[in-house]
Structure formats: structure tokens, C-alpha cells
Amino acid sequence: MKRRTQTGGRTSRRKFLSGAAMAGAAMVAAPSIVKAQGPVNMRWQSTWPSKDIFHEFALDFAKKVNDMTGGDLKIEVLPAGAVVPAFGLLDAVSQGTLDGGHGVVAYHYGKQSALALWGSGPGFAMDANMLLAWHKYGGGKELLAKLYESIGANVVSLLYGPMPTQPLGWFKKPVAKAEDIQGLKFRTVGISIDVFTGLGAAVNALPGGEIVAALDRGLLDAAEFNNASSDRVLGFPDVSKICMLQSYHQNAEQFEILFNKPKYDGLPDQMKAIITNAVEAASQDMHWKAIDRYSKDYVAMQTDDQVKFYKTPDAILKRQLEVYDEVVKKKAAENPLFKEVIQSQIAFADRATRWEQDTVVGRRLVFDHYFGQEGVAKEL
């Protein structure tokens, strides 16, 4: 009886160990099959010159994905013009010429006017982070997919990276009233094309890498791009010493990650989950890096480049809103999808901005307390 029990025990133990070994082998074999197939390689292009901090943001995102997948997905990001012109990114990704890209939604304005509502305009008092909240939780994501479907774009779009309010632009002399913009040859993009046209400017939409040369050659009288770091490295201080800060023309913009849809759909679900979370991680990291770098370059342009910054007068800001309203009414009447996006944004903004205005304390008072003329920060 005792012998049978021991034999039976040994038999059971052998079966258990054998089963465990097979299970372990299966666990080891599964990833090795993926490894045997090799990593998924993707060739991307950004919309930005290689020296622009925006291209750096694109590289940052790619590195996060590459690292988080352990090299199973390898994204290579080329600068604007390496494969297609900056404004050709959407078509190239949709057609599979590129596997993906990094840009902004407003650059596709010419294909579907409603696409510019992701960042090109005052955002109905939302900043870029609030607009991203609308995008994720207020129906924007579904509307964007609907817009891309309406133009036959075979892409998957993931938005991230809230941008600070962009300057009104670089000028030969400060502008004091809306009439000062009339007749200027001006560079902008998105719905801002219509807004500045409504302000009397002759608008030319150019990619970032071409703006400074156009200013230098007199093809433009004034222009806007985005931020202190981009503007400085692209050479704006070399052709202008006057920059007007604060504007409603691009108050709530964010970046766009584009995938070719068949390429994206073919990825394993786990890899898609990593990408989704990498987008959100990169979004906050980009926001932190922008605060650090933009503020440094803002100071450097004043101390080293002798740039003078002026606040855009309220009269110009108010006129921007009036012209924007006229443009929106016209576009909404022409394009039902445009109207659908506007109504969705307004519904979300009415709630979210009301909460923000009532809840978040103004920071000008505390700034003046510490850093104003009689600031006490130096005493602390």
C-alpha cells in the first residue's frame, strides 16, 4: 500500500512537472515567435524642419514607443521634405507612402474645413489642454474620425501635446489696431487664413521651414509660426525684432500622431495599447519640456537677440473674435460637419470653461507680488 502510494505520488509529480515544463516552454516560445519574425519597422515623417523643437517632440514620441515595446516596434521619424512636402503628410500616410507622421490637424484645412477646429481659433475660451479633454471625453475623437472618413483618409489619428497660446506674429513695427494689419502680406494656416483675410491681410500659407526666407525676401511683411523656441531656431529674430504676443487665432492647438490605418490595424492589440499610453505620456512630457525650453528662449531672444515683445492690444483681440464668428457662421452654413463640431465644442466649453473661470484663481496677482516692480521674491 505504501509502495503504491509512493509510486502514485512519483507518477503524479512527474505528470505535474511535465505539464509545468510544457507550459513554461509555451510561455517562452510565444514571444520568441514574435522575435523570430523580427520587429515591426515604420518609416514616418514629421511636418517640421529637423532643427525645430517640434521635430524633437516627434522624436521623443517615437523613442517612447520604441522603448516601451522593447524594440518590437521601431519608428524612424524623418524631417519635413525627406519624403514628401510638409503639407503632403496626410496624403502620404493615407496612401501608405509613409507608415505614419507627426503634425497638426489644421494643416489639412484645405481638404475639410472642419479639421481646422482642432486648434485654429479661440477655442471658445478653452485652452489646448481643455480642447484635448473635449476630444477624449466630449465626442471630439469620434467627430475627427468621421471627418477623415468624409474625405476618404485611410488613417488613424491620435492627438496629444497641448500648445500654449501662440503669438500674433512677427512684424516690422508694432501693430496698435486692427487696421494696421490691412494690406500686410501675412503667413498663417487653418481658419486663421480666413480670419486674417477678414482683417484685410493678404494671406499666404507656408510650412514652417519656408517662412523666414519669405520674410527675408520681402514675399511676406509679417508672419506667425508658434513659440519662442521654434521661432528662434528657425531664424525669426534675424529678419524681425518685433513680436506681438497673445492672440486668439491659434489659442488651443495640439499635435497629431498619424498612422496609416492598414498598418495600424495590423499591429497586435498589446502594441496598440502601448501606443495609446505612449501618446498620453508623451503629451505631458511635451508640455513640461515646452515650459522649460520656451521660457529659456523667450528670455534669450530679449537678452541676446534684442527682440522686443509687445502685448497684442485688446482692440485687435476683440476684432479677431468678431471676424472669427463671421467665418464660423459661414462655414457652418456650408458644411454640416463643421456645424456639428462647433456645436459639440460649444456645449463642452460652456460647462468646462465656466467651471474653470469660477474655480481657478488668477495668477497675475501672485506674479506681481513676487516678480513685479515691488516683487518680494528677491527677499525670500
From TrEMBL:
CDD domains with a match to the protein in the record: PBP2_TRAP_ketoacid_lactate_like
Signal sequence bounds: 1-36
Matching InterPro entries: DctP_fam, SBP_TakP-like, TAT_signal, TAT_signal_bac_arc, TRAP_DctP_sf
Keywords noted in UniProt: Signal
Pfam family, one: DctP
Protein name: TRAP transporter substrate-binding protein
High-level lineage: Bacteria, Pseudomonadati, Pseudomonadota, Alphaproteobacteria, Hyphomicrobiales
